[in-house]
Amino acid sequence: MRINGHLMLNGKKMSKSTGNSLSMQESIEKFGADATRISLADAGDGIEDANFEEKTANANILRLHTLIDWSEDIMKNHAELRTGPKDNFWDRVFENEINSAIKVTEECYGKAMYKDAMKFGFYELQTSRDLYRDATADVKMHADLVKLWIRTQALLVAPVAPHFAEHLFRSVLGESGSIQTAAWPTPSAEVDKTIADAAVYVRGQTKTIRDAEILMAKRKAKGKDTGLKYEERRPKELRVFVARDFPAWQDAVIRAMKEHTTAEGVVDDAKVREMLGAQGMLKDKKAMPFVIALKKRISEFGADVALNRVLPFNETETLEQASSYLRKTLGFRAVHIESAEESLANADQLEGKDGFDRKNVEGAEPGAPSFAFYNVSV
């Protein structure tokens, strides 16, 4: 049994007297059955009044037609796609995200959570396709994964948009039977959290790099960093400094927290301060703010997660595999992945060259590399 409120239209109560009214027949004539059904699913599942947005319905018309056009075009040129092993980083990320979408969407349908079913099985699945397409532009998408994605997309959205799904299934993929008699898709493998974490990391670093470059440009525009010669519109390259180890002071704080935090996440503040004081750490102005930040993470994620400092993937390898995506997405001529420790060992020779700055590199930590932007001559 589910409870929900009334259906709102464009954020306002439906009322014929004010003209804010839309019947099912009118909606189908205006937006089509599938766009209407997706927008109704997207209107909400909770006890609050659901809100049918006409702009969402219009956007879904475009989304459905664009997806059909893309699918038809990619299947016509299927022979031009890559074949062979599906073993590069982005292949594994894409297949893992398809498997995750199958699992999560099935759970959402089972709980009658149609808004979330559309979120994971329609909108975010297309976001995964977009990232894969952009990330593999230099090597092309894998033919098998593209076909798997189209078939999975059709099956996941079929309960809500059956006409669209049927067209993809029979006309685009050439399946002989109806999608209404097809089985729910089976994941090709268990969802790999390590691959998922690596993908989240790459997306996060892409945003961090972009934000850092924007901040640099803003500071220069305001008259700060006047000595900076970097021009973002000129040909440019990026250096990413990856740290193998955390700073010694952070490791000391982590050890103290691990020794004096219970399995339930209760921190013995007095003993933590005592242990840090014995090591002279309380004089370090960075120590206590770091303790406070860790306590917050413990309250959010639990002690095991918050105090686990080991990345589940190889950071350097992940960045190297994603370097072509970073280069293309962020507009660099080249992206260089370097060891922070090795660079610091040669800091005297590197200082001032190709954007190298000792303090900047010293700030690198596992999971949070530092960056250097510099211009190059063409």
TrEMBL record:
Keyword flag Heme: no
GO process annotations (BP): leucyl-tRNA aminoacylation
A Pfam family: tRNA-synt_1g
Transmembrane segments: none
Family the entry assigns: Belongs to the class-I aminoacyl-tRNA synthetase family.
Methionyl/Leucyl tRNA synthetase domain span: 4-58
InterPro entries in alphabetical order: Leu-tRNA-synth_Ia_arc/euk, M/V/L/I-tRNA-synth_anticd-bd, Methionyl/Leucyl_tRNA_Synth, RBD_LARS1, Rossmann-like_a/b/a_fold, tRNAsynth_Ia_anticodon-bd
Lineage summary: Eukaryota, Fungi, Dikarya, Basidiomycota, Ustilaginomycotina
GO MF annotation list: ATP binding; leucine-tRNA ligase activity
Protein species of origin: Tilletia controversa (dwarf bunt fungus)
Keywords (A to Z) from UniProt: Aminoacyl-tRNA synthetase, ATP-binding, Ligase, Nucleotide-binding, Protein biosynthesis
Ranges where the Methionyl/Valyl/Leucyl/Isoleucyl-tRNA synthetase anticodon-binding domain occurs: 91-203
Catalysed reaction, written as an equation: tRNA(Leu) + L-leucine + ATP = L-leucyl-tRNA(Leu) + AMP + diphosphate
Stretch forming the signal peptide: none
Domain of life per record: Eukaryota
Gene3D superfamilies in the record: HUPs (3.40.50.620), Isoleucyl-tRNA Synthetase, Domain 1 (1.10.730.10)
Sequence ranges assigned to domain Leucine--tRNA ligase RagD-binding in this UniProt record: 242-305
Protein name from the UniProt record: Leucyl-tRNA synthetase
CDD domains linked: Anticodon_Ia_Leu_AEc (cd07959)
